[in-house]
Structures are given as C-alpha cells and as structure tokens.
Specification:
Number of helices: 1
Strand order of the largest sheet: 6-7-10-11-9-8
Shape: globular
Largest sheet: 6 strands, antiparallel, barrel
Order of helices and strands: EEHEEEEEEEEE
Number of strands: 11
Radius of gyration: 18 Å
Length: 165
C-alpha cells in the first residue's frame, strides 16, 4: 500500500569532561521514574552526549518507552536534537510495541513533539511503515508519517474476521 500520509499509534559526554561531570550525568540519567522523563533531559544547552539512553515513564511510573540516541545535543532550553535515534515503545503489559528509527530528529521538551524531516521507519510485529518525514507525539504515542509512505503488513490474521460456523 502506498499513500501520501499515514497515522499510526503506538552516555558519554563529548569534549573535555571530568570524571565528576560524567558521574553527575550518569546519576541524573539513572534517576527514579518520578524524576526522569523526556521533559528533564540531563544535558546542558550547547553540550553533546553520545550513547544517551532515556527512559519515558507515564504519570504512574510505568515505562512506556525508551529513547536510544547515537548522539544528542541540547539546542536550547526547549529543544534537543538527536542523531541515529531508536525509540522503543511498550504496551501497558510491558510487551514490546513499536520500534522507530530516525536518522535525525528534534524533540520539543514543552510539547513533547518529536519531528524528523528524513526517512523514518516504524516497525511492529505485524507491519512496517516508512515515510519521508514524521511527527511523533510522545504524550499520546501517536504519529504522522508524511510523503512517500509505504506500509507492508506482515501478519494479516488479526485483520480478518473469524469465519462463520
């Protein structure tokens, strides 16, 4: 199926750093669920981190996602840019849900809207979908792929109604 857009639901510090700075960053990254989320990323403005892994917890402290960035850089107080971002989302039963791969992306910390203007891939056990650009709302866990969208459904069994007996 090819269409123009689609809706779907679903470190180490760079540069001169002391051991104390690295220890502080690690302590902040391993904060408890109530303290650590996507709105308080432990990265000062203008700094870059490699291999940054960020958990995403809901209001009840349940893990709903995990962000793994090859590189993350804080642009300003409200925006963080990621290179080679891999997002994993989980169901309420802590089962693997979606895997999203983005080459470059920007997360607005106030709106929690993640955008990318490069080809993005979304995978789940029953489908793969790719598009030229994406907007992903980390609050609602919904996204919008735009331009040159291609979806491949790999498991149609749950789409078909049960045969009448």
């Amino acid at each position: 199926m090819i269409c123009s857009q689609s809706l779907w639901a679903a470190g180490k510090s760079e540069g001169k750093g002391t051991k104390k700075k690295k220890r502080d960053l690690a302590a902040m990254a391993s904060a408890s669920p109530g303290e650590q989320n996507l709105t308080n990323i432990p990265l000062p403005v203008g700094h870059e981190a490699k291999g940054l892994v960020l958990p995403d917890f809901d209001a009840n402290g349940h893990l709903v996602g995990k962000f793994e960035a090859g590189t993350a850089r804080r642009i300003d107080q409200e925006n963080v840019t990621f290179q080679k971002l891999k997002i994993t989302t989980f169901t309420p039963e802590n089962q693997l849900d979606l895997q999203i791969d983005m080459k470059t992306s920007v997360l607005n910390l106030k709106t929690r809207l993640l955008t990318s203007q490069e080809r993005t891939t979304v995978r789940r056990t029953d489908f793969n979908i790719v598009g030229d650009s994406v907007q992903f709302d980390t609050n609602t866990r919904t996204g919008r792929l735009i331009g040159n969208v291609k979806m491949v459904i790999t498991d149609q069994s749950h789409l078909m109604g049960k045969p009448a007996e």
